[in-house]
Amino acid sequence: METFILIGILYRYLLDMILRFNRLLLFLCAITASYGTASEFQLAKAPLVTRWAKDVSPENAWQEYPRPQMVRSDWTNLNGLWDYAIRPRNGEKPSEWDGEILVPFAVESALSGVGKTVSPDEKLWYRRKFSKPSVPDGDRLLLHFGAVDWRCSVWVNGQLVGEHEGGFDPFSFDITNALRDGNNEIVLAVWDPTDTGTQPRGKQVLKPHGIWYTAVTGIWQTVWLETVPSDHIKSLKIVPDVDAGSVHVTVNATGGKRVRVVASDKDGSSEAEGKVGDDTVVKIENPQLWTPDSPHLYDLKIELLDNEKVVDTVDSYCGLRKIEVRKDDMGINRLFLNNEELFQYGPLDQGWWPDGLYTPPTDEAIKFDIEKTKQFGMNMARKHTKVESARWYYWCDKLGLLVWQDMPSGDADKTDESKANYRRELKAMIDTLHNHPSIVMWVPFNEGWGQHDTQEVVAWLEAYDPSRPINEASGWHDRGSGLISDTHSYPGPAMRPMEEDRVIVLGEFGGLGMPVPGHTWQDQANWGYVSYQTKEELTDAYVALLDAMRFLIGQGLSAAVYTQTSDVEIEVNGLLTYDRELEKMDSAKITAAAKRLFEPPPTLTEIVPTSEKSPQTWQYTTIEPASDWMNSGFDDSNWQAGQGGFGTEGTPGAVIGTIWNTSDIWLRRSFQIDSEPEADDVYLRVHHDEDAEVYLNGKRIASLSKYTTDYKYIPLKAPAELLFGENSLAVHCHQTGGGQFIDVGLVLATEQELPEDPDAID
């Protein structure tokens, strides 16, 4: 009996030990698996990363549906770890691979896990295996690429299924006939000459510096599989008609005879039927319009019909909005949204990320940038020389942000090859992005970069998409075509003279820079158009620019673009740091300043005119005067009399009345105020090259450093110095080299009363 008891005890002990060992083994396996997964993928070394980088893994990299305006449920995401190899350009498919790369992040980026440069003498190879999905008889399997930079060839199971050139547009291949049971293999070969080639490339260069950034090579948007019927919808063209309260939908399909389109929102639905390839018009009862303040979207369901049988269905959406240039009540050309004048203001949005380069780390990161833009009081963004993924435009549609869309710039030599590449990729961009209601302007050229045949390009664009105005060339080389006249001014603001047939916009201004230690791409030698040391100084300078811009709005300026959303690499001109961790200015102050741009501009009254339009007489000397020269009672009768402005011919923006070519000049003039001055603000109207000090009745009211290239409005700190009766204005300007100029005036600004809100509650 005792023996059996002892055996039982030993059995239970051994069983307990086995169970403990198994639990320990499972625990160790779990730890090993965990560490194994972590060690499989690590970010490559980078100077800076965003908060979202920690959320990226091979299992969750960009799992969102990549094409929100043409959705099907049967799809497979191929993002994740692929094999990669960098080999000589003329080499064959690698027999061995260099390691793994996280798709869809470019090989140069930290989030790819690689962080290597690919030269123009090399090719980047990819390989990915996948299990054959279930494809019903007669259906087709499509392999989609969101974007691959730049030229690529694609094989499936050793069979070439297609080739593509273009760094920004999506493309697809039918791989059905190349499939086999079980495991299948995709192989990609990519060549990207970056700035040694003739293709559109935006701001990518092999040697980043200044405003030019790290190259992007290979896959940088989602790769995915989609099962479709043999007769299926290939693309949609959606055109809203605000005045008629309808939406026009044209369906491009491989088969089928008719289509049915259903538009719906929470208030109901409308539908219409038409032929494949024809314009199907859906009339919407009591339509709600899309605006930045109320970005209302209608769901669309599009069905492909064959003898009343539905053979394919896709889901989409649209917004009812109308954008145009027309004259306001004063006869000034303005931008109108949905038949109402709307000033457009927003940042130059480069779309670069320290950890993903062209590719944001996550969908939340995209949403963050757009939400921040709106929180800063802006209603627009200019997408600068880059085309984003469809998800970025989806969030602009959803959250209500107007978009000016640049065409990525390319070859400065403007060869026949570069022109052909440009035209092909321009058309692809328009076709890809046409349906987004947020896009309200096409910008084919920026600052002359690769600019060619401007009037011909604009005429083609106007015919191809008559629903949006064309900004022929933002900044430089105005050829007089399109409906937009666009200048750049740093720091600005400034505007071109008014035109009879075109609207005046400021395509870039600002560029106010400030590096924030711990949040920069590099520790030293960061770059900005104008640099500041503190958040307070930067905020004040920004607010002053926006306050001055209100005067230009009154004179006819219809839109402005501030440089820029965030810092980018060594550029530190952002509203946000490059890692998006810090707002570089006082958010409340800059938001209030931006919102004032949408109010009626102030009424301006000149009390001391400048010499811009007619010469003004000053007393002046180039010999240093007595120390009390700026005071009201100073005797300047032995000074010379001369007409403004004072400077040398050839100085940008200068209106020369009297030649001044010495190092220093002192100016004085008296003026009368015949009634008590009543104004909300007093501003200098000034063009200075270089440093200038301005005195009103003996008190210094402005110290201006460096130079401007045209006339600016500068808010005064001491408007109370204005007196009833006689006043004196005195100026000292100092020049060190190059062009030189000085002209000064004074302006009173009186705010207009805002109209009463009929919906306001007492």
From TrEMBL:
One of its GO terms (biological process) is carbohydrate metabolic process. It comes from Bythopirellula goksoeyrii. It comes from the Bacteria. Belongs to the glycosyl hydrolase 2 family. Residues 122-199 form the Beta-mannosidase-like galactose-binding domain. It is an enzyme of class 3 (hydrolase). SUPFAM superfamilies: (Trans)glycosidases (SSF51445), beta-Galactosidase/glucuronidase domain (SSF49303), Galactose-binding domain-like (SSF49785). Its EC number is 3.2.1.23. Keywords: Glycosidase, Hydrolase. Residues 365-476 form the Glycoside hydrolase family 2 catalytic domain. GO terms for molecular function: beta-galactosidase activity. The gene is lacL. InterPro entries: Beta-gal/glucu_dom_sf (IPR036156), Beta-mannosidase-like_N2 (IPR054593), Galactose-bd-like_sf (IPR008979), GH (IPR017853), GH2_Domain-Containing (IPR051913), Glyco_hydro_2_cat (IPR006103), Ig-like_fold (IPR013783), Ig-like_GH2 (IPR006102). Residues 232-321 form the Glycoside hydrolase family 2 immunoglobulin-like beta-sandwich domain. This is Beta-galactosidase large subunit.
